[in-house]
Every structure is written in structure tokens, then in C-alpha cells.
Specification:
Number of strands: 2
Radius of gyration: 19 Å
Number of domains: 2
Strand order of the largest sheet: 1-2
Helix content: over 70%
Largest sheet: 2 strands, antiparallel
Structural class: mainly alpha
Order of helices and strands: HHHHHHEEHHH
Length: about 280
């Protein structure tokens, strides 16, 4: 038992996370995603909205810690408008609500005075785009008649990349991928995640979406790149704001934004791939 404890502690130290709580939280979130998509898609949309609002609050708090103020209430209302409009009106709803929300929030920032206007306006616009606008693509995938299969494919792509990039990085990682942004990420982990994401996506595209597995493998490689960019993007935010995690809500993961980072960038990519395939394949 002591040997198992030592092994677990060693892996926790190298990975920078507590392994067991991370697994349980991950499984719990997956259960919510698949059960709501299977039986109550509106509940899935509500779950995504709540998760994004929590992530937005974490981002606003991180900005505030560095002296950049933002109006969370107006951002939260605008983000809710963006996501609900997407669910109801699709791509048109997402686009129009984003434009309205951006203008409204920039005006709110302007009412706060011209002192630090550029910093506050930039932070508000960024917070609307990330996580709000990009999360809209999750709902674009989910609201389709094939929504369960699209979301399942998204989960498979992200889970394969994140899980195997982490595992292979912990076991074999020696060459740092981006040491100034995310010191624990390695090229070995990236390649491992990319290969498994390609395999997972090939199977998902063939069995769930009825496309050739080579198309799925290519999409999986692109998804691994997108997921890695999403992870590095969030790491860059934390590095700039001098924080380790966006929050402590999810044991073993950190904050909600720490859990959503890969999905937020992979979802728009998968949506674009599916739209292109619908038109040309």
C-alpha cells in the first residue's frame, strides 16, 4: 500500500495535479455531458451556459487581481444572450448577439471614464470572445439533429488528446514544448496526444458520422493542434496574470476555465470541418 501511495505521489508531483480526484471529476463531467445530450439537450445547453459563466467569473477575477476592472454583470448577461441566441437561432443568432454584446459592453466601459479605457475595453472584448463566443460553437454542434454524435466526437477528440498527451508527457516527456508558457508540456506528450486523437477521431468519424476514417484522422490531427493551442492560450493568460490555476472549483483540474480550455478552441474547428464536409463530401 505504501508503494502505491509513493507511486501516486510521484505521478502527482510530475503531472502537477492530483490524479485520483482529477479522474473522478472528469468522469462526473462526462456523465453530465452524455446523459443530457442523450435525454435532455436543453439541459446540456443550460449546463454549458453555467460552465461558461463560471469560467467567465474566474477570468474576470484574474483580471481584477492585476488591476484590470471589468463589469461581470454586463459580461454575464451578454454571454447568456450570446449562448441562448445561438441555441435558438444558430449561426445567425451567434453572430448578431455577439455584435450587439460587443457594442453594449464597450459602451458600458466608456461610461466608466476614459482613464484606462483601452485596458478595460480590451479585457471586456476578450472576455466576450473567450470564453463566450467560442463556446457558442459547442451549442452549434449540439443543436443539430446529429448533435449527440457531434458532441461525442468532440469529447473523443479532446479526451484522447488531453489524456494521452498528459500520460505520455508524464512517463516519457523530456523535451519541453513551450517552456516559457507551459513548462510541463513536452513534445513527446504532444505527439502522443496527436496520434491518439487521430485514432480516436478516425473511429468516431467512421462509426458515428459515417465518413472515411482518413478524414477523421486528419480532423483528429487538426483537433490535437487546436486543443494544444487552447491549452497554451489559457496557460499564457495565467502566466501573464501570475496565477497557477483559474480557480479551485474542480479538484485535480483547477478552475472551470482550466477544464474548458481545450474544448473552447477545438469546438469551432470541428464545426468548420463538419460544415465543409456537408458541402463538399
Amino acid at each position: 500500500m505504501s508503494d502505491l501511495h509513493s507511486i501516486n505521489e510521484a505521478m502527482n508531483k510530475k503531472a502537477g495535479r492530483k490524479l485520483i480526484p482529477s479522474i473522478f471529476v472528469g468522469l462526473f463531467l462526462l456523465a453530465i455531458v452524455f446523459s443530457t445530450m442523450a435525454y435532455a439537450t436543453l439541459a446540456f445547453a443550460a449546463f454549458v451556459t453555467v460552465a461558461v459563466l463560471i469560467a467567465l467569473k474566474e477570468l474576470a477575477a484574474a483580471f481584477r487581481a492585476r488591476g484590470i476592472s471589468s463589469n461581470y454583470l454586463s459580461l454575464a448577461l451578454s454571454t447568456t444572450l450570446i449562448l441562448s441566441s445561438t441555441w435558438i437561432g444558430g449561426l445567425e443568432g451567434l453572430t448578431v448577439s455577439m455584435v450587439i454584446s460587443l457594442i453594449f459592453n464597450l459602451f458600458i466601459v466608456l461610461l466608466g471614464g476614459v482613464d484606462g479605457f483601452v485596458d478595460r475595453a480590451t479585457a471586456s472584448a476578450f472576455a466576450l470572445l473567450y470564453p463566450g463566443f467560442v463556446a457558442g460553437f459547442i451549442l452549434l454542434l449540439a443543436r443539430s439533429s446529429e448533435g449527440f454524435y457531434y458532441i461525442s466526437t468532440l469529447v473523443i477528440m479532446v479526451a484522447c488528446n488531453d489524456t494521452f498527451a498528459w500520460a505520455i508527457g508524464v512517463l516519457f516527456g523530456k523535451h519541453r514544448l513551450a517552456p516559457k508558457i507551459s513548462p510541463k508540456k513536452s513534445w513527446e506528450g504532444f505527439i502522443g496526444g496527436l496520434i491518439l486523437s487521430a485514432i480516436g477521431a478516425a473511429l468516431a468519424f467512421y462509426y458515428l458520422l459515417d465518413y472515411h476514417p482518413i478524414i477523421g484522422a486528419l480532423a483528429g490531427c487538426a483537433g490535437a493542434l487546436a486543443a494544444t493551442v487552447g491549452d497554451l492560450l489559457e496557460s499564457g493568460i495565467k502566466r501573464d496574470l501570475s496565477i497557477k490555476d483559474m480557480g479551485t472549483l474542480l479538484p485535480g483540474h483547477g478552475g472551470m476555465l482550466d477544464r474548458l480550455d481545450s474544448v473552447l478552441i477545438t469546438a469551432p474547428l470541428l464545426w468548420c470541418v463538419i460544415e465543409i464536409l456537408k458541402r463538399f463530401v
